[in-house]
Amino acid sequence: MEIRDAVVEDVKQMSTFLKELTASGKRTSPDDESFVRAYYIEDSGKIRCSVAVDEGVILGFQSLKLAEPDNKWGVEPGWGIIGTHIRPSAARRGVGRALFEESRLAAENAGIGNIDASIAATNPEALAYYEAMGFRTYRTPDGLICKRFAVAKQSS
Ligand SMILES: CC(C)(COP(=O)(O)OP(=O)(O)OC[C@H]1O[C@@H](n2cnc3c(N)ncnc32)[C@H](O)[C@@H]1OP(=O)(O)O)[C@@H](O)C(=O)NCCC(=O)NCCS
Predict the structure, then answer these.
(1) pLDDT in tens, 58-84
(2) How many A from CA of 126 to the centre of ligand 1?
(3) Which pTM value belongs to this model?
(4) For the chain, what are the domain ranges?
(5) Which atom of ligand 1 is nearest to the CA of 93?
(6) Which CATH architecture does the domain made up of 2-155 adopt?
(7) Is residue 150 classed as helix, strand or coil in its secondary structure?
């Protein structure tokens, strides 16, 4: 499995398995190719968007963006905002763990002190995943559990 930056040519596959996540009730945000391209690949606030690839098949991706002032998630400006999306057939095989190593390094290199993961309170797999990566709950707005990862603390 190779971890590399996501590129425009990856959009089709990314959208395909996001649609699988939508169909299984694990995603509510848009999943079409134009959204994936604009939101994950070309967004001006992107710090890193990494894909995990095995023999040309994208197994998952992780997006790390900078929280802008007044962002709609209520995340402290200057923090990172993370999202993880694994192809259902590749779940629980260490893909998310490998992607986070890359995102953590990207955050460190970008001088980001904290990363927010805002997770649906009804998503036990994602809550367990982020907890395992070292994220801890710091606020619980309606229907969400927001976990924080302290980048500097972990890397020192
Ligand atoms: C949640 C998700 C990101 C986890 O990614 P993954 O590649 O399957 O996770 P990994 O295999 O790297 O697991 C790393 C650790 O996270 C925890 N974990 C991951 N999936 C888990 C699950 N289903 N149940 C319990 N713990 C889990 C475990 O501690 C695991 O370590 P272990 O396998 O050595 O016990 C992935 O399943 C996914 O994309 N789910 C659907 C989309 C989603 O909910 N995204 C998050 C939105 S905020």
Answers:
(1) 999 999 999 999 998 999 999 999 999
(2) 6
(3) 0.96
(4) 2-155
(5) 11
(6) 3-Layer(aba) Sandwich (3.40)
(7) strand
